[in-house]
């Protein structure tokens, strides 16, 4: 690996590509069974959920539409505050529709609980959450996450959509960053 190789910035692989893909297929089979052919609207939360959305959607047999939201949570450093601003709203009217929020990772759960109450106020027929990754703090919140890929340790991870400073999203696996990347400002 040369210095430009993304692998040089990584401390390790937490979830390899084959395990990610196997889990996505497993989640898709459960979603298919649960929705049983009903029209489903997948709502991906940009930008982190792009990879899981793309792979989950392709693994589903149910008829789905896809829409996207972009939100920013204000907070100091790596912690979100729960104060959320919509950067891009849905194009779809979700009234009376079956909606499944697709998220990359839940940490404090503040962003997601804001999103859930925002979307709930638009009166969907149903509203559920699918999150690829969940950290320990999120388990303690009241958010009911119907579909979870992996419960992971409380470490900062990148790859498969997840960034550090807008990089590493294109890794096909989930990994942890080498300390030198943080440059002492983690
Ligand atoms: P929450 O409001 O649940 O604390 O924050 C969720 C958002 O914070 C995620 O959608 C993601 O953008 C970011 N985030 C939380 N933990 C991680 C992590 O380990 N790695 C990366 N790259 N982003 C994270
Ligand atoms: Mg996210
Ligand atoms: Mg990010």
From TrEMBL:
Family: Belongs to the purine/pyrimidine phosphoribosyltransferase family.
Alphabetized SUPFAM superfamilies for the sequence: PRTase-like
Domain of life: Bacteria
Subcellular location: Cytoplasm
Pathway: Purine metabolism; GMP biosynthesis via salvage pathway; GMP from guanine: step 1/1; Purine metabolism; IMP biosynthesis via salvage pathway; IMP from hypoxanthine: step 1/1
E.C. number(s) listed in UniProt: 2.4.2.8
Organism: Thermomonospora umbrina
GO cellular component: a single term: cytosol
Record carries keyword Ribonucleoprotein: no
Signal peptide feature range: none
Keywords: Cytoplasm, Glycosyltransferase, Magnesium, Metal-binding, Nucleotide-binding, Purine salvage, Transferase
Cofactor: Mg(2+)
Catalysed reaction equations from the record: IMP + diphosphate = hypoxanthine + 5-phospho-alpha-D-ribose 1-diphosphate; GMP + diphosphate = guanine + 5-phospho-alpha-D-ribose 1-diphosphate
First-tier enzyme category under EC: transferase
UniProt GO BP: GMP salvage; guanine salvage; hypoxanthine metabolic process; IMP salvage; purine ribonucleoside salvage
GO terms for MF: guanine phosphoribosyltransferase activity; hypoxanthine phosphoribosyltransferase activity; magnesium ion binding; nucleotide binding
Domain Phosphoribosyltransferase: 20-164
Keyword Glycosyltransferase: yes
Name of the protein: Hypoxanthine phosphoribosyltransferase
Pfam family for this entry, one: Pribosyltran
